[in-house]
Amino acid sequence: MEELKIIELKESVFADNDAEAEKLRGDLKARGQFLLNLMSSPGSGKTTTLAKLIESLKGRYKIGVVEADIDGAVDADEIQRETGARAIQLHTGGMCHLDAGMTRQGIESLDADGLDLIFLENVGNLVCPAEFDTGASKCAVILSVPEGDDKPLKYPLMFEKADVVILNKIDVLPYFDFSMDTFTTYLRARNSHCDLIPISAKTGEGMDKLASWVADEMEAWRK
Amino acid sequence: MEELKIIELKESVFADNDAEAEKLRGDLKARGQFLLNLMSSPGSGKTTTLAKLIESLKGRYKIGVVEADIDGAVDADEIQRETGARAIQLHTGGMCHLDAGMTRQGIESLDADGLDLIFLENVGNLVCPAEFDTGASKCAVILSVPEGDDKPLKYPLMFEKADVVILNKIDVLPYFDFSMDTFTTYLRARNSHCDLIPISAKTGEGMDKLASWVADEMEAWRK
User: Fold this and answer.
1) Does any CB of chain A come closer than 8 Å to the CB of residue B168?
2) What is the pTM of this model?
């Protein structure tokens, strides 16, 4: 196995992040590469979900992973060890989000030539990452059952930006006061168009549906 | 019951947040008021923990609560309804943290005269709130079992800033891969001096110990 590459991010020099994001999105599209930005709170199960997704898609597509964290390399380590996918770890140096310039640094460091599908695991934070367009093709937001059904009410922008909301850890629904009706009502007040996919990355429930969503969105993007 | 007051925060005008925080801390100390800054991810159980804490301390102390969220008023509503404590809701208008100027706005709006103990429930975010001194007397960080034992590794500053780390939702330890040894090792690598108090706000386990911690720190502060 390759040694894990850890990149200490430099601050972005671009004043206009939106323009830089559009440029990156255009470059990716021209190369036929689909970039999925995964956002969530710390501990929602992003890395486990990602590992399962890669297992189910890696027979069909060449996949790379850009992991971002303030510090540590446990996520990229885990992805590389469990799935064999090419992964790099970005350190944001205290920064609470990724922007398009940082995302580009990550993709270039990954050596992404020939990849079909790149997952960007954003910093664990339900606030700031939603404010910065990374240049990704689509945005996925993961919320886990233990975090509570009221989160779309309290973190509006994150749920507004989602193309898909993945509700993880549904295996522990019996142990938490989480109402699917309440959650759906709050989510739809923020976002009427996104898909909602309940899963348990631990038991595998719903993972087929999520893998199909990713594959379908990628195929549509590449057309 | 009083109607709930919701304050739309203005951006702070102070260039030097550290100086403003020291000033607020001094003002609070002069009035014999203890301000505890509660920080955590969304969904770690801050509000439930707070409601239980207030129940156990309100016979001895006059307590107020400043709740901060980007949007919504569910937390201040819940606190006021369940405990009868004086509470206000701050809306940060998208901002991911509180600073000392915003905290002062909150305390002034709470009409804090005569209170002994003020809880500040910061924005749910394990990154940015740690970067800003609010002027609080002490900082508490809540992590919940479902978030995972690796969080001190990935969110260093938050755990470095803690005077106490409250590990919540220990009632669900059997359903998650959470190693108390791993967690303690990572936590101690970030912070050798903070207290660590495992609790379940749901079942009440550990809440006596937490209430004693708050009362002891408050008494020490007021001396």
Assistant:
1) no
2) 0.90
H or E stretch at B63: strand B63-69
CB-CB contact of A103 with A123 (8 Å): no
Between A43, A151, A175, which is nearest B148 by CB? A43
Q: List the single residue in A131, A157, A169 with the smallest CB-CB distance to B146.
A: A169
Q: Establish, for the pair of chains A and B, how many residue pairs have beta carbons separated by less than 8 Å.
A: 113
pLDDT tens for each residue of B114-165: 999 999 999 999 999 999 999 999 999 999 999 999 999 999 999 999 999 9
Give the model confidence (pLDDT) of A81-128 as tens digits: 999 999 999 998 888 999 999 999 999 999 889 999 999 999 999 999
The DSSP bridge pattern shows strands B117-121 and B86-91 to be: unpaired
CB A14 within 8 A of CB B98: no
The answer to whether A125 contacts B96, with C-beta atoms less than 8 Å apart, is yes
Do the chains contact at A41 and B126, CB–CB below 8 Å?
yes
Rounded CA-CA distance B136/B21 in Å is 8
What CA–CA distance (Å, rounded) separates A40 from A143?
Answer: 6
3-state SS class at B171: helix
Contact yes or no for B175/A172 (Cβ under 8 A): yes
